[in-house]
Amino acid sequence: MTPLIEVKNLVKRFDDLVAVDDLSFTVYPADVYGFLGQNGAGKSTSIRMLLSLIKPTSGEISLFGMDLQKHRFEILRRVGAVIERPDLYKYLSAIDNLSIFARMSGIRPGRKQLMEQLEMVGLAERADGKVRTYSQGMKQRLGIAVALVHDPDLVILDEPTNGLDPQGIADMRNLILRLSREMGKTVLVSSHLLSEIEQVATRMIIIDKGRKMVEGGVAELFKPSNSRIHIKVEQPGRAWQLLQQSEWKPFMEQGPDGELIVIMSPDKVPALASELVQQGVGLLSIRSANSLEEYFLSLTSGKQHVASFKH
């Protein structure tokens, strides 16, 4: 399948700060592609480069099989985006906002067509209401209607659930799924709300400090054979040395505070535990960590950032 987005060795430096560091990833048609990272990991910088709002220091970006630098205007006509909070005319109605942005895109839809757009995002009943009276969630949904007014093939949403209450987050999740399943759009959505990405994404990338940590299908990354088993023992150093000389070596990682991490199917845990006991290693605890949040934390900068991932 031909990629819809292909990024190769992307770098962005701001003076001495490397915000994006040799980043490569691929998005395919019909993906809901989760772009995951802590606040400050480089997500928004990467998205701004995808939209040619800022220039890369180096690297290649192609969309729809075309080089972004050479075919910028042709590409952007096929892209709709909401970057953080949408910029809207607060003292105009929703339908007037939509009409203005449609004209900026070079189209002049009638009221019926505009109402269909507002119906799609659940705002038809408030079409003539002033945007200043809208909740943050309603403004986010109107921003998506604006991004869709020219019927783009690719929709890019940067932290679309920021500032939303639980109902607003659920509404945004359902809207993203509708864009993909009913409208056939390819959606790239960045977030640090990990459980939300787990529920909507088909594929994802996790970045940390501007670098790719892992990329792949969500179902593949979280299948039982890829469970991360965390083991605490009384003698972590000795246990590690023993396991490095055993059949378990290919599955082992060293975790924080001497914890052992084994990536394998849970049904193999009893055999591993038995071997450790036979070798005289005292077991303190064994737990499976197969949620997206646990996986994210294991790949990024560690426990000091846990509070950033809660919602």
Automatic annotation (TrEMBL):
Taxonomy, superkingdom: Bacteria
Keywords: ATP-binding, Nucleotide-binding, Transport
Coiled-coil ranges (or none): none
Gene3D superfamilies assigned: P-loop containing nucleotide triphosphate hydrolases
UniProt-listed SMART domains: AAA
One example GO MF annotation: ATP binding
PROSITE patterns: ABC_TRANSPORTER_1, ABC_TRANSPORTER_2
Domain ABC transporter: 5-234
Record SUPFAM superfamilies: P-loop containing nucleoside triphosphate hydrolases
Entry's family note: Belongs to the ABC transporter superfamily.
The protein's name in its UniProt record: Bacitracin ABC transporter ATP-binding protein
